[in-house]
Amino acid sequence: MNSFELLHQAFSNFLKNKHNIASEIINAAQFELNSDPEKMLFGDINSNIALICSKPLKINPRTLASQIAEQFTHPFVEKIEIAGPGFLNLFLTQAWFEQIAREINQQQDQFFVTKPAQIKKIHIEFVSANPTGPMHVGHGRNGILGDVLARILDFLGNSVHKEFYINDAGAQIIKLGNSFKIRCMQTLGHAIELPEDAYHGEYLTELAQACVATFGKNLEQESDLFFQTYAKEHLLALLQTTLESYGIIFHEWFSEKSLHDHGAVEHSLQRLTQSGHTYEQEGALWLRSTTFGDDKDRVLRKANGELTYVAADVAYLIDKLDRGFDELIMVLGHDHHSYKVRLHAVMQALGFDPKRLTVILYQLVHVLKNGEAVKMSKRTGNMITLEEIIEEVGKDIARFFFLFRKADAELQFDLDLALKKSNDNPMYYIQYAYVRSLSIQAKATQENIALPTSVVFQNLNDQEKLLIKKICHLKLLLPQIAQNHQIHLLAYYAYDVAHVFHAYYNQQRVIDSQNIALTQQRLSIIKLVQINLKTAFFIMGITPLEKM
Fold first, then answer.
1. Where are the beta strands (DSSP E) in 186-266?
2. Residues 6 or more apart from 157 whose CB is under 8 A from it?
3. CA 229 to CA 250: how far, in whole Å?
4. CA of residue 359 relative to chain centroid, distance
5. What mean pLDDT is predicted for residues 76-88?
6. Which helix (H) or strand (E) holds 330?
7. First vs last Cα of the chain: how many Å apart?
8. On the CB side of 523, how many CA atoms lie within 13 Å of its CA?
9. Which residue, 403, 420, 486, 520, has most beta carbons within 10 Å?
């Protein structure tokens, strides 16, 4: 355990032994490292334990807080103050800051790993765009939410499986094949028009030209299945290429069609029927999902024998559960709220705990340029593609801007701001903090000042203490994100670290050839900033710059 965890354990043991407070109550109380620049007067650690315990102990919370403040002592605690109705503010000693800094310096990125009580096998399905065209900007937001969450869970030691579900069965693939066939025939000189509900993007014309160059007039004899397969495979390869350029690599690309081909869909319907939660009406097979909170029952098989998309969803859900995953996570657009309810109903019908499935919903993305919304694309005819965004601003900026907003709030992707090389651009601001740390070290070397290999502090000022606490906070933040899935908080955090660091640099002279001891101390803090930002960049899938 690190110094913060040791102190928390000592405080918890004190509460158990001295005041007979139950562990579950202690665990529910706050014991938070205060790294907020606006609340520096409220101590280094804040706890509401006296407020939480006052009722079960039948004692006034401020009275209890006074007893705790008088009785609890520890080498890392300088003093304890009481605020408001009974909040405890703990002020840490110089020894704590020295010890925690040494631990970060020695352990590097591993300092920020908090192993979960139980290592889980976690399945994350995200993006899962139809292979009928290029990915749009919404898929960019979907992708970053899923990928960064997967990186966090993996960083903490879980077994994480990232999966893309290929919707390669059903009406959309038939429509794709028909649209592509018409484009091929047009390229061959046939006077034929696309139906209004076909796929009209320029990408199919480009694909048709390539196909005609290979097969020529022989295409006139090909089956509908040929055109479906050719278009699907080439567009799927395009999706894979785009995602790789975006820094996303999936462990598996799972085919919906395989569920039908291997009989998994029919088998899943049999399992549901055996559970007693299906019924037949007018020749159709229904899932009685209203029993489990759905707004209406769902058709699984139509009266004509045709399977619905719900049936395939059931089969895919069962397949994931049968593969032994402890937890399932899906990232979906905001219009899929009923989908979440439906899958939870299926899980309950089959006897699975619905809490094993979490659905993260995200809101729309609006692209802005010159202060106005951009809606049209030459390549697709009706949307801005993720590929265009990556080409315009680069992979790292794209990832950060898609992440720098809460998932359930609409996101405005400002292309002008993303390309701006100033502190107005949050990604530039953070990258500049890392580059600045490197330039400080380089300057020290130029002045023949040795970079410290260990951490030695003399008398830390408040800004230095704040910066160390802010750096430490990443260790507490990552497990929180793993639980609450508020993935944007990592981007916010990186920005906060950069802000505190820039403020520190602007107010403190780091390199002073007349005071080598103080310079060494501040170079030690600069190194901690580097370790922290490099770790945050790694988890966000962003490459730190060495110069700007």
1. 252-255
2. 113, 115, 116, 119
3. 22
4. 13
5. 96
6. strand 327-333
7. 38
8. 23
9. 403
Assess whether pLDDT exceeds 80 at residue 110.
yes
Q: In 3D, which of 81, 72, 67, 104 has the Cα closest to residue 34? A: 81
Nearest partner of 14 among 60, 50, 61, 40, judged by Cα = 50
Long-range contacts for 456-462 (Cβ within 8 Å, ≥24 apart)?
A: 456/98, 456/520, 456/521, 456/524, 457/94, 457/97, 457/98, 457/101, 457/521, 457/524, 458/517, 458/518, 458/521, 459/94, 460/94, 460/97, 460/521, 461/508, 462/40
Q: What is each CA distance from 314 to 36, 166, 195, 279, 322, in whole angstroms?
A: 46, 15, 32, 16, 12
Q: Of the candidates 507, 509, 484, 497, which has an alpha carbon nearest to the alpha carbon of residue 534?
A: 497
Tell me the per-residue pLDDT of 295-313, one tens digit each, with 9 for 90 and over.
999 999 999 999 999 999 9
Q: What is the per-residue pLDDT for 382?
A: 65
* Contact in structure between 168 and 232 (CB atoms under 8 Å): yes
Residue 233: phi and psi, rounded to 5, are -65, -40
- Select the more confidently predicted residue: 378 or 16: 16
Quick one: tokens of 155?
Answer: 């960083």
**What per-residue confidence (pLDDT) applies to 378?**
47
Crossing angle for the helix pair 516-540 and 395-403, to the nearest 10 degrees: 80
> 200-233: per-residue pLDDT in tens?
888 999 999 999 999 999 999 999 999 999 999 9
The beta strands (E) that lie in 167-304 are given as 252-255, 278-281, 284-287, 298-301
SS in 3 state form for 443-502?
A: HHHHCCCCCCCCCCCCCCCHHHHHHHHHHHHHHHHHHHHHHHCCCHHHHHHHHHHHHHHH
Q: Indicate the Cα dihedral angle 516, 520, 523, 525, nearest 10°.
A: -140
Written as one letter, the residue type at 76 is F
In this structure, the chain runs to a length of 548
Contact assessment for residue 380 and residue 203, using Cβ atoms and an 8 Å cutoff? yes
Backbone angles phi and psi of 412, in degrees to 5: -105, 110
- What distance in Å separates the CA atoms of residue 230 and residue 512, rounded to the nearest whole number? 67
CB 481 within 8 A of CB 490: yes
Strand 87-92 and strand 77-83: the pairing is antiparallel
| pTM over the 0.85 mark | yes
Task: Give the pairing of strands 365-369 and 411-414.
Answer: parallel
Q: Which of 364, 398, 403 is nearest to 490 (CA)?
A: 403
pLDDT of residue 264: 96
